[in-house]
Amino acid sequence: MQEMLLKNGNMSVLATAFAMSFLVWPTPGHSGQITAESNARDRMNLAGRERMLTQQLTRNACFVMAGVAPDRFAQRTQENVEDFNRVLVGLRDGDAELGLLPETDPGVLAALDDIEALWEQFRPAAQQISAGDFHTIPMEQLVSLNMATLKQMHETVMAMADIYTNDNMSPDLLKTVAVAGRQRMLSQKVSKEVCFKIIGLDGLGASDLVEATIQDFDDAMARLMTGSEADGILPPPNEATLAQLQVTNATWQEFKQLVADIQGEAEVPAETKIRLSNLSDQVLKEMNAAVQLYVQ
């Protein structure tokens, strides 16, 4: 297993190739009074962001295994852990800086308990791998728990959307924010799946899985750009939001082409692995800017 996981590592090439800067996405801050409306809006945004972190965290740990700037990706894995921890606590107990009131709904609190139980196993597995421990057990935990945590987090987000519709937030707006926020996760999930293929885990990075994730993103983007009454998705509320979605989509198309090129390569050059990370993070950055326009 260890030899398979270390396939394609080339640190000497990466030392000079990694000149491009990484995109850092800090945890959103909050100023002013927290109202029921702002709490619902920020809770949906941040809970949706937790979905993304499950995939970015796994992608970053995978790049450590692939020998892609391991020190830098190990640091980013730790940053992901800290971000996820803080928001998970804030979703339960409240966090004034994040704009969150304490959660009171029993169903959501129970769902957060389930996420915490998964996270207590998922987190150390990712940290072990990012520290260079490529043994079978943490690898198997990373593979299984990233998707289990994502699934539970997504179900929690959708439950929140139902609960908070009465807090001066229309169900269509909450659904739109949930769908837009999910695009952030999908950008990282694609790069994770491609990384799994790069390190030799072909079943976890199979072309059909990658294509399904890409199609999911494409379908949602089409609905976001025009609105979908049947799906409860609002059209862009203003020209700025539409323009940002168009910028996101242009970056996404470039990323999709890179993924297609990688899928056809037996050996992926170090520079291409770095570009995969940079472009997926650029899609994430642009999509996050669009989400902020919906929730501001």
Automatic annotation (TrEMBL):
Annotated NarX-like N-terminal domain residues: 45-132, 176-269
Localization of this protein: Membrane
Pfam families found in the cross-reference section: PilJ
Topology of this chain in the membrane: Multi-pass membrane protein
Any Gene Ontology CC annotation: membrane
Source taxon at top rank: Bacteria
Keyword annotations of the record: Membrane, Transmembrane, Transmembrane helix
Main location: membrane
Protein name: NarX-like N-terminal domain-containing protein
